[in-house]
Amino acid sequence: xxxxxxxxxxxxxxxxxxxxxxxxxxxxxxxxxxxxxxxxxxxxxxxxxxxxxxxxxxxxxxxxxxxxxxxxxxxxxxxxxxxxxxxxxxxxxxxxxxxxxxxxxxxxxxxxxxxxxxxxxxxxxxxxxxxxxxxxxxxxxxxxxxxxxxxxxxxxxxxxxxxxxxxxxxxxxxxxxxxxxxxxxxxxxxxxxxxxxxxxxxxxxxxxxxxxxxxxxxxxxxxxxxxxxxxxxxxxxxxxxxxxxxxxxxxxxxxxxxxxxxxxxxxxxxxxxxxxxxxxxxxxxxxxxxxxxxxxxxxxxxxxxxxxxxxxxxxxxxxxxxxxxxxxxxxxxxxxxxxxxxxxxxxxxxxxxxxxxxxxxxx
Length: 363
What we know:
It is built from 16 helices and five strands. The chain is mainly α. Strands 1-3-2 form a three-stranded mixed β-sheet, with helices on one face. A hairpin with a 2-residue loop joins strand 2 (about 210-215) and strand 3. About 30% of the residues are buried.
C-alpha cells in the first residue's frame, strides 16, 4: 500500500512538472512506420522487451536506466537488467524503435527532477554513451554532445543527429546529384571486381565515406549483428518523416550497400576485404537484410542522392572495352585454378611451336 502511495505521489509530481512546460512543439515528431516499410519485416519495428512510446505504453524508467548505465554505484545488487547482456542489448534496440519514442523534452523534465535542473546536455551525453555500441560502424561525429543548437525530438533523433557527419562532409562535389542523366545504379561487388575494381577498407574518415579513385573503391568497415537490420530500418523510417527532405544519408548509404550486395558471394567478397564484419555468421542472412530493407524506399535519379558522384565514375570504369573484355575472360576462362592450368597447358605448346618455326625459318 505504501509503495502505491509513493508511486502516486511521483506521478502527481511528474504531471505538475509537465504542466509547467510553456508550449509543446508546434510540429509532430513521433509517427507510425508506414505500411510499405513495415511489411518488409514487421519484427524490426516492434519492441522485444519494453514499450515506452505513445503507440505502446508510456513509462519513465529510462532516465534511471541511463544514469545506472554510466554510474555502476547506483545499481542495486543482482540488478536484473545490467546483470544479463542480452537484456541490455535488447533494451538498446527497443529504445531506438521509431514508434517506441517519448518526446525528448519530457525525458529532460524527468531528468531535471533527479539531477541538477537544466543540465540537458548531460542527459544527452548519458544517452549517447548508452547507445554507443549499437552503432554498426565508427562512432559519433563532432556533434556528439547533444548540443541545443540541433533540434532533438526523441532518443532516436538524438542518435541520428550525432551519428551523421558535419554538413560540410555531407556536401558532394559539384551538382551531379541533381542531374538525372549523370548517374545510374552500379553493379554488385562481384561484377565490378571482375572488371578490375579493387576493394579496400577505409581506415580514416567518417562511416559514410565511400570513395572511388584509380580503380579502387574504399569503404568504411560495417559490423552486421542481430540488431543491425532493426537499427537501419528505424533510422530509414525516421528519415522519411524528417523535416529535411534533401538529405537522407542513411537511406542513401543502405541503397549503396544494396547495390553492392546481391548474393552471399558479394557478402563474402566484402568480408575478405575487411569491409563487412559478419557477426551473424551467415552470408545469405546479410544479403537478405540489404536486399529487403530498401524495397519500400524509392531512390530516384532525379532526386538528391549523396553518392551520385561516385556512381558515374564506377560505371565509366565498368563500361571501358578493355575492362569488359578482361571481365569476360575472367568469368569464362579464368574462373578456377583448373581453368587457368588448362589455358596455360594449351598456351605452352603454341609458344614452343612458334619458337620452333622461327628457328627453322632462320636455318
